[in-house]
Amino acid sequence: MKQWLKNITGIAAKEKELEAKELAMLDKTDPKAAATKRGEPWVNVLDMQVNEENIRNGFFELDWNDYFIKELITNGYGTEADPQEEIVDRWFKDIIYNMLEQEGLDTNRNAGYINVVPISKGKSEVS
After folding, report:
1. Which of 53, 83, 91, 102 has the most beta carbons within 10 angstroms of its beta carbon?
2. 125 — pLDDT class (breaks 50, 70, 90)
């Protein structure tokens, strides 16, 4: 009954219009929040730095939402019981491996290890 009343008074249409405007604003100001509100997976590289003393070392700082983690779990990168950082680490290693392979480069590079440091929920530093 309540929804019917909203429909005939035009309140439902106004609510949809306001929600669309809010999402458009979020797309510009906070893409992670916008994707989360839509229920879409989202991941972003926040920072990437290279060690000036040893070019083979550096780090990426990644940020993601829970929908991205769910998608990774669905695609075999972990389980609900795994820490999010470990799930993202498996995916990130796979991405790097595939990039090397596509370029015809040696995937067994013995360049060290990937260190994942949780910064806060939904963020980690990968070096």
Report:
1. 91
2. low
What would the pLDDT profile of 98-115 be if each residue is shown by its tens digit? Answer: 988 888 877 675 545 556
The boundaries of the domain holding residue 77 are 41-126
Residue 66 burial class via C-beta count within 10 angstroms: exposed 0-12, middle 13-18, buried 19 and up: middle
Same domain, 12 and 69: no
Please count the residues of the chain.
127
Phi, psi of 69 (to 5 degrees): -60, -45
Q: Which two tokens stand for residue 16?
A: 């949809």
* Counted domains in the chain: 2
Same domain, 76 and 26: no
